[in-house]
Structures are given as C-alpha cells and as structure tokens.
Amino acid sequence: MVQKKVIIDLEKINGSLADGCAACGRKFLLGETAVLAIGSWEGGPRYIHESEAVFDSNISQYFEKKYYPLRLK
Ligand SMILES: [Zn+2]
To answer: 71 FRET partner, CA 20 to 30 A, in 19, 22, 40, 42?
Structure first.
C-alpha cells in the first residue's frame, strides 16, 4: 500500500525520496510533508511538497497545483 502523504524522515531523504520534489526540484527537508501527486512530468504519481499540491476529494488524489487546471485538456 503506497502512502499518499508522508512525513520526511532521514530514511526517505536518503532513500526513496533522495531525488527531491518533482514539482520544484528542491530536496526534501526533515519534517516536511510530501504527498504523492499526479503532475506535468512523465510517468505516474511522484512525491512533491504538500504546499505545491491540491487534493481532489472527488477521486481522493493529489495533483500538482499548476497541473491541476490543465489535467482535462
Ligand atoms: Zn517542491
């Protein structure tokens, strides 16, 4: 089961989230919240900062904020 929302800890910084945020490219910091979101990048959902995501409660899915208005085009 993939977690949609995670708190960044050392294991994640050095492991699965070492590449940083897919939305802004910044590395994650300890204690930040990341959410699994669909965005303008290639492929499936990736982790981004929670502040850069919007949650669509209709389908229980996070989207990158700037991508959200474009997703149906
Ligand atoms: Zn970010």
So the answer is: 19
Break the chain into its structural domains and give their ranges. 5-70
pTM, full prediction: 0.91
**How far does residue 73's CA lie from ligand 1's centre (Å)?**
24
**DSSP labels, 9-32:** -HHHHHTTTTT--TTT-PPP-TT-
d(CA 34, CA 60): 15
Whether the pLDDT of residue 20 is over 90: the answer is yes
How far does the centroid of ligand 1 lie from the alpha carbon of residue 1, in Å?
A: 23
pLDDT tens digit string along 37-65? 999 998 899 999 999 999 999 999 999 99
